[in-house]
Amino acid sequence: MNIRSLFRENLLLEVLEPEQQIFYKSIIQEIHDDYIAIGMPMRKQKYLSMPKDSTWEFRLIRRENLYYFHSPCLDYHKRERVPLYLIDWPGEVRRVQRREFFRVPCAFEAHYWILKKPWDREDYPQNNYEPATGKGATNKSFLPDKKPVALEMLAEMMGEPEEAMIADISGGGLQVVTSKWMPMGTVLLMGLFLKGKKKDMTVFVKGRVVWVLPFQTRLKLRFRHAVEYVDIPERIQEEIVGFIFVLMRERMGET
């Protein structure tokens, strides 16, 4: 791979903040023989400081691929009132096929509640709902009109959940294995329990079943459901992608 051919001006380049494991966004401003000049990395109007001689992890986004590499910060320059960081050319770059989002096999627990079945006439409302039928569920509407509710609170009101196992996960969706069949188009509320060596997190998302595949284990019939996220906030999606990246790094360290 010709590493230098990957880089050009105006490409999106992301910098990993190591403590929170969150990517800050930057743009490649200039390409030189001795360095790459990038704009100050920023996330939600907050800048990332990169001291001279400190080494950072970067992610370059190009079409269907993501390129990960480490480079030290060589210097800080302010040219024509535009602050720039100068980073060294990487000696090695790791390519990951992105597709929509990179999927990682896993085996994490999840809880889910059915919000809407495909034959329901109306879409599931944001500010008023009827809990799914099952243990702990009632027919009472818990929420006042025109008041959106956090998904965590919604989960508490929905009664006892069904259990599932996450088979793989990405920033765009996941696959879950359940003991019950759910038809395509079913809308779910899901609690995802993501566990790594250095980072554990629980996130709540809404998702829609896009395909179902039954399979037989030695003892029971199970169902693998592909679920795409629905109306997922950017912050939650970034947290999931950040966790996936941490998980990948942990697994690479094991090999």
Itemize the secondary structure elements and their pairings.
Elements: E1 12-17, E2 22-31, E3 36-39, E4 42-43, E5 46-47, E6 55-62, E7 65-79, E8 82-87, E9 94-97, E10 104-116, H1 151-157, E11 162-169, E12 173-178, E13 187-195, E14 200-216, E15 221-230, H2 234-254
Antiparallel strand pairs: 1-2, 1-6, 2-3, 3-8, 4-5, 6-7, 7-8, 7-9, 10-11, 10-13, 11-12, 12-15, 13-14, 14-15
CATH class category of the largest domain = Mainly Beta
What name does the CATH topology of the largest domain carry? Answer: Thrombin, subunit H
Shape: elongated
Task: Write the element-wise H/E pattern from the N-terminal end onward.
Answer: EEEEEEEEEEHEEEEEH
Strand content: over 45%
Number of DSSP E strands: 15
Report the uncertain regions.
123-147
Specify the CATH architecture of the largest domain.
Beta Barrel
Our Rg estimate from Cα atoms comes to 22 Å
Mean pLDDT: 83
> What is the count of helical runs?
2
In helices, the fraction of residues equals 10-25%
Secondary structural class: mainly beta
**How many distinct folded domains?**
2
Question: What would you give as the CATH superfamily of the largest domain?
Answer: predicted glycosyltransferase like domains
Task: Let me know the largest β-sheet.
Answer: 6 strands, antiparallel, barrel
**Largest beta sheet: strand ordering:** 1-2-3-8-7-6
Amino-to-carboxy terminus distance? 22 Å
